[in-house]
Amino acid sequence: MKKARVIGAGLAGCEAAYQLLKGGAEVELFEMRPHKKTPAHVTGDFAELVCSNSLKSEDVFTSSGLLKREMELMDSLILRCANAARIPSGSALAVDKERFSEAVQRGLARFSKLTVVRRETEKIENVPQIIATGPLTDGGLMDELQKLTGGAAYFFDAAAPIVSAESIDYERAFFQSRYGKGGDGGYLNCPLDKDEYGRFYEELIAAECAEIRDFEERAVFSGCMPVEIMAKRGRDTLRFGPMRPVGIRGIDGKRPYAVVQLRRENAGGTMYNLVGFQTHLKFGEQKRVFSLIPALKNAEFLRFGVMHRNSYVLAPAVLKETFALKAEGYGHIFIAGQLSGVEGYVESAASGLVAAKNMLRILPELSDAQPFAPSKGTETGMRSHENIANAPQFMLSRETVSNISQFMPPPETMTGALCRHIAYAEAKDFQPMNSNFGLLPPLEKAVRDKKKRKEEYVRRAGAAMDEYIKNERK
After folding, report:
1. How far apart are alpha carbons 297 and 167 in whole angstroms?
2. By CB neighbour count within 10 A (0-12 exposed, 13-18 middle, 19+ buried), where does 19 fall?
3. Domains in the chain: how many in total?
4. The model scores a pTM over 0.85
5. Closest of 326, 424, 441, 363 to residue 113, by C-alpha
6. For residue range 83-97, what is the model confidence (pLDDT) as tens digits?
């Protein structure tokens, strides 16, 4: 019997579990929540989104949109559930967090070969497994990873505040998506004139931040930079960043001096997220400073922004493009999700998908040599058990691994390019990576026009992925 473990029920872990189950494997899915929570999680739900509720743009001519298209072709559970739980958000794919988690859990619950283990994992046993515990991994498991990989690194990221919809002043706010993309119901805009922006800016850069152990500004991930740090780079930095008024026309038909965009946090539209306002200001300071935004003068803050340290392994030194460990004898242990060095919701799910498809190719080799005995006291289905027996040990030789064909989309695809970057980037300067067109190989013929160049990248990637999937199905 083919059997594997998945450690962590986040986006990567749930996607990996689904791909393994669909491929006929028996899966033990370990999740420590709700018995033990992290600094960012609130529930014990599968695939809980802890920062934004947006999975970025669906426009296929963006790197994120291209990655989504490829994952849909590979039958991604996460993408299917996100589409089922979507809420209006312009050209972005935003979801109702609760509905999304429920959809993911239902998608896994239909498999009888799934066993859910609600307990913390502190030891890495030498058995087939995908470790997808996320960037908040700590304690004994982090110590084990340090030993197994020879070291890891970290960065900081932050979440933005959430306000109550009924507390917003709608006489000072209006619905409109930037450039009208996705209709006018996607974003709620809170404009500021020059004087209002000036007062807000001065108070923001003078506000008091919360203390975070080991905090280093240089270790802040650029995609999640706190708004107060960004503001200190220059008075107009925010006006060219999250508060840029480009593509927005106010009620009077004129472009505001600056604008704060709010995005729906749930399907009911009762909560709104301050887009781009990740912060680690003290809670009282967040209330004081963000209330200077006219439309949020009387805003009720349902959740304040928080900042936390995220860990990841130095992937180029320790992982293959399949997300398996490079060390000989450990080719059946994979690290996926943000812990592997990818950054972003969709990228994390993609890594879990690729890891699982490659695990499925390794499991028969292990099963033939030494069956993975069922754990004692297990129950099948979406239920938990407490007594996990010591599993038998496995070793895959370098020769055996080299003879196993890999699941690896071509480098011209966004999925394949991201996987190869994780494995072959310079380890010394490695940092978490989002999908982006810069990862793709150059076009055969240079295209100067930026829009046409992206179109050509997308055309080439689509053709390469379609051909790869067609050959995989033969």
Report:
1. 9
2. buried
3. 2
4. no
5. 363
6. 999 998 888 999 999
